[in-house]
Design brief:
The chain is α/β, with parallel strands linked by helices and about 425 residues long. It has 15 helices and eleven strands. The protein binds 6-deoxy-beta-L-fructofuranose (LRH) and manganese (II) ion (MN).
Length: about 425
């Protein structure tokens, strides 16, 4: 199943005049405010988000999983599905693999297929939170932090293998998320757990090629419910500093205790040139992995304000890795991802409309009311014509979700793959 250009353009034809009217009206208004429209469109077009290879089928919880029909059952089919997202949105030009869920069989063939869709291989993810069927030892009592030297060694070797796999695909970064932790007080010694983890990370850092980056992802709880070794940004930041210049903190939006000020964490990490990237999603309570922007769109906007600022001011901070990490328990996975991609672009565009100069002036005057007015003027701007214009100029769909439905993509996939196919992953 491929999105054929001519059919996509057929669908666009009916909407193009409406878009041109909306776009020129908005562009005129924003130009009056001193916004560089072409610059903004270029930044939107350059903004590529990596799609997680583990989130192209239906997700689930311990209480069950409702399969979605026509799910991809191979890495090849997953790359094709990401190709559909990229053809429609022109902003999904990367994939983030999770190993061993998605080990390529034929490296040359999978690289060729990805290239054909305009997709690159972003960060690769290791997995020391599940025991593999052929494993000699278990991660039941931790991996990097385990008190058992051989278990730590097994975890380090696995991560080195993931780096080697990534290197063959042209990836340039490794994301490490550890489930390591405890469910009960007294279950394990905190200090030796952290020391073992630091030691294991340093070994992997040493194995990585010199042009690779290490992303250390933190999470306060789940699957452990009393303590987690890498529980918060501070612990990840400390471990990244202990590893070296090419180790950074990765912020998964769902990995924060309720009401945590994530935009402040982002500002702090960028100031210290230690922000590596994001796992975008949204949540109401815990690590709910819901559609980006579906619960707290204003919070996402405030985070992008710090990102736009940080990208301006913290030139030492590396180019950020943008990735989605969501789980589709009830929506069509591809429709869910289309909505997430739109929400990310929307927040980025709105943040780029913030009049930072006036904001700084109002802040220096202590004019708190004006500060909020400046932020919310940008947030209240309907930027959708800008997003559509950026897409259509690259050959994408004016309205990706509408076109996805009009082209009955899901039915095509079911016809091709059968109804009850199940994708690997979460
Ligand atoms: C942990 C996490 C991590 C992945 C996993 C699939 O909650 O966010 O990024 O390895 O989800
Ligand atoms: Mn994540």
């Amino acid at each position: 199943m491929e999105i054929r250009k001519e059919i996509l353009q057929e669908h666009n034809k009916k909407q193009i005049q409406g878009l041109e009217n909306d776009f020129s009206r908005l562009a005129e208004k924003l130009t009056e405010k001193g916004v560089n429209i072409q610059g903004l469109l270029q930044r939107l077009q350059d903004f590529q988000v990596a799609i997680p290879s583990w989130a192209l089928g239906a997700g689930g919880t311990r209480f069950g999983r409702f399969g979605f029909f026509g799910e991809p059952t191979s890495l090849e089919e997953k790359i094709d599905d990401i190709g559909i997202l990229h053809a429609l949105t022109k902003t999904a030009g990367a994939v983030s693999l999770h190993i061993p869920w998605d080990i390529p069989n034929d490296y040359a063939a999978i690289k060729e297929k990805a290239k054909g869709h305009g997709i690159i291989f972003d960060a690769v993810n290791s997995n020391t939170f599940q025991d593999q069927s052929n494993a000699q030892l278990s991660y039941r009592h931790g991996s990097f932090s385990s008190m058992d030297k051989e278990v730590r060694q097994m975890a380090v070797l696995h991560n080195n293998e993931v780096v080697d796999i990534g290197e063959k695909l042209g990836s340039k970064s490794l994301t490490v998320w550890l489930a390591d932790g405890t469910n009960f007080p007294g279950q394990r010694d905190f200090q030796s757990s952290l020391l073992n983890t630091e030691d294991s990370l340093k070994k992997i850092y040493g194995h990585m090629p010199d042009d690779w980056k290490l992303f250390i992802e933190y999470k306060p709880y789940e699957p452990n419910f009393y303590s987690t070794v890498i529980q918060d940004w501070g612990t990840s930041f400390m471990l990244a500093n202990a590893c070296g210049d090419r180790a950074y903190t990765l912020v998964d939006l769902g990995h924060h205790l309720p009401n945590t000020n994530i935009e402040q964490i982002v500002a702090t990490l960028m100031l210290k040139d230690k922000l590596g990237g994001f796992h975008f999603n949204d949540s109401k309570y815990g690590d709910d992995d819901l559609t980006v922007g579906s619960i707290k769109p204003y919070s996402l906007f405030l985070i992008f304000n710090e990102l736009v600022n940080g990208m301006e001011r913290s030139k030492q901070n590396p180019e950020l890795a943008w990735m989605i990490d969501a789980s589709h328990n009830i929506k069509d996975p591809l429709e869910d991802l289309l909505q997430s991609l739109e929400a990310i672009q929307e927040s980025y565009a709105k943040a780029m409309l913030i009049d930072q100069e006036s904001l700084l002036e109002a802040q220096s005057k202590g004019d708190v009311v004006q500060c909020q007015e400046i932020l919310q003027d940008a947030f209240r701007t309907d930027v959708r014509p800008l997003l559509a214009k950026a897409r259509v100029d690259l050959g994408g769909a004016i309205n990706p979700l509408k076109t996805y439905r009009a082209m009955e993509v899901r039915n095509e996939l079911i016809a091709e793959r059968g109804k009850h196919t199940v994708a690997t992953g979460l």
